[in-house]
Every structure is written in structure tokens, then in C-alpha cells.
Amino acid sequence: MKNIVLKFGGTILNDKEMRSKAAGQVYNYYSEGYAPIVVVSALGRYGDPYSTDTLIQLVKDVNPKIEPRELDLIMSCGEIISSVIFHAELSALGIPSIALTGAQAGIMTDDNFSNADVTKINTKNLFKILSQKMVPIISGFQGESEHGEVTTLGRGTSDYTASLLGAKLKAESIIIFKDVDGLMSADPKIVSEAKNISHISYEDVFQMAEFGAKIIHPLAVEEAMKAEIPLVIKNIIDDDKYTLIDNSGSNNIISAVTYMPNRVQFVITTNSENDRKLINKIFNALAENGISIDLISIFPDRKIFTIDNYYAQITSEIIKQTSLNYSIVDHLVKVSVIGCRMRGVPGIMAKIIQSFSENRIEILQTADSHNSISCLVKEDNYEKAVRMLYNIFGI
């Protein structure tokens, strides 16, 4: 039998009609001779009874300071509930299945609660279940430490669980079902003519995820890419709406426009050699506090970098511990063009600068790589910038 991983999101499982369609997908693959391995997310979103955020809020309403160990315990409940409910759906169709926690599926992690790293996957139990022609329904987003503690892998990592299992079990493909049409060439709320991307490379979609597209977790893409397993994002309602992600991808130089809000820019003045030593001290302190620098520009007299707004206060406190002068620009958005082999293609950056200048959109910072070009703009201008980039390159 050929292994195939099928992952279903929480909004699908929270809706009776879509959950029935999800069970039908498993039934079809099972009937065709596949060995489906199902991964599920928690039911719904915040406000729904068993969503992860709702469960967290139940505890924080009692005491906002909850220990990481106990937080992981309650955060793991949503996926377990989903696995049992989906087991009931499959049983109603006559498909033998078994609901599993991440630990029962053999996912082992370190002790870093709420953001655990997977150390190994013991597939003994899964292979036993598959050999009995049963469908394992695995709670995503979770595992177990070597000390027997329940751990979670970080928010939004059920897709990552699917890719990890697909790689370990050498699945034919990993299909992630959602209630959207796969990856889009831009946010359709901003660009009405945005189109579904039917085929894209791992590298490009990884860049899209890294640069703000929220449709799939970057770790899920990275794991599938390492194992060279096709990854498919498919609409649960319409089988014709999907995105295939593999090594070949498309040959389009430009694939999509993305954006990342809540950026804050720090500009630090440096006038002497001692100032430059203090800059190194600042960067080391940022790393020690787990603060990731987004864009960075280095000049003899100043250092400019951007971070997520969430870390703005602690970053200011770190800089204040030195004698350096600095300024902050907030309410910024990073807009990016994603595509293969962009570096070295004449005229791309020139087009962007000219168009932004003509439309009075100030560019505060830029960065480019083999697969992306990014511009930092003010929040008031970002939607206009996204539409402009989309039209410039005729995506």
C-alpha cells in the first residue's frame, strides 16, 4: 500500500458539512488502496468552544500567569478532541481508524514547552496500525519529551506534523486540506484579480511563508523539501482548486506579492570605533533574547534594522543600556515580490523604485535575495504598494 498524508484544518473540522467532505476524502483514498495517515488541527478559531485560543483563555481568565508545562497540557487538548470526533466520522463510513496523541504517534521532542523541537519519530506503533489496515488520526502540533511530558511545537505547526510524518513514512504525497483555494498570487482582499497558483517550487513557497503569506507553516515546506515529497494545498470544497509544491515549480520569474505588517525600524547612529563595538553588543543581546532581525542595512555612520513590533520595547531597553543615539519608525509594513531566479534580472528593482517614486510611496529600506525583493513602506501606503507591485509585474 502507498502511504499518503492527509491533513485537515480546524475550520474544516468545526463545520459539519466540511467535516463530512473530509471523511469522504479519506474514504476515497482508502478505497483506492492507499494507506491514509490523517493529521488534524484543533476545532475552529478563537471563540469556538474547543479552539486552542479558547482553551488558553479559559485558564487565563482564572490566572493570567500559567506555567508553560500546564499551558502545553491544555493547548494539546483541542487536537485530541478533533482526532476523536474525526474517528467517529470515519467509523460511520465503515473505515477502521484510531485516534492518537502526538506521543502515541511516536513524536518525541525536547523539553522546550510551547516551542519544542522534534528530536525523533518512533514509527513502530504507526507501522503496526497501518499493517492492520487502520487509519491513524494523529493530533497535530504536539509530542512528548523524553521525560514523558506533553509538549507543543509552536503555534500553527499541525502542517509541520503532517510533513514530518510524511517524510518519515516516505509518503507518496502530503495533502493539506483547507477552506481556501491554495496559495494565491496576492491577498485577494487587497488585489481583487489575484489568482490561484497551481504549481510552485518549494523555494518560492518557503519564501512566501517567510515573507508573510499565512497559508502554510514554513517548517512544513522545509520538511517536505528535504524529503522531496510533493506537498499539495487543496480546497476541501473544490478539488480543482489547489497548489502543487515540488522541486520543479513554475518557470515564472515572479510568482506572488506578499506583505508582513507590524514592522518597526531602528536607526542607530555610530560615529566611532567604540560605537561599532557597542553595536555588536546590541546585536548579541538581541540574539540572546530570541529577537530576530528582519531587514538590516549597514553604513559607516549608522545601522538600520527592522524587527516585529512585539519586540520593540525590549529592543529599546537593550539599546538604552549603551550610550548610542537611536530613533524609531513604527507602523511599517514590508512588501515583497517572490519569484525564482530574480537576482541578476535587469530592471526589476528599477521598476519598483520608479513606480513607487511616481506614486509618492516612500521606501524606507530594501533587501533582495535569489528569490525575493522587499521594500519597507509606511502602513498607510502598503495596500497601494501591494497592488502596484502586482500590476508592475503582471503576475
Q: What do these coordinates show?
A:
- Helix content is 35%, strand content 26%.
- The chain is built from 13 helices and 18 strands.
- The protein is globular, with a radius of gyration of 23 Å.
- An eight-stranded mixed β-sheet has the order 3-6-2-1-9-11-12-10, sandwiched between helices. A six-stranded antiparallel β-sheet has the order 14-15-13-16-18-17. Strands 5-4-7-8 form a four-stranded mixed β-sheet.
- The chain folds into two domains: 2-179, Acetylglutamate kinase-like (Carbamate kinase), CATH 3.40.1160.10; 256-392, VC0802-like (2-Layer Sandwich).
- The protein has helices at residues 10-13, 16-31, 52-60, 68-75, 77-92, 124-131, 158-168, 202-210, 218-227, 273-288, 312-320, 348-358, 382-392; strands at 2-8, 34-40, 97-100, 107-109, 118-121, 135-139, 142-145, 150-152, 174-178, 199-201, 231-235, 242-246, 256-269, 296-299, 302-308, 326-338, 365-368, 372-378.
- By secondary structure, it is α/β, with parallel strands linked by helices.
Major pleated sheet? 8 strands, mixed
- The CATH superfamily of the largest domain appears as Acetylglutamate kinase-like
Counting DSSP E segments of at least 2 residues, the number of strands comes to 18
Helix content: 25-40%
Q: Structural class given helices, strands, pairing?
A: alpha/beta
Number of helices: 13
Alpha-carbon distance between the two ends? 40 Å
If classified by CATH, what would the architecture of the largest domain be? 3-Layer(aba) Sandwich
**Number of individual domains:** 2
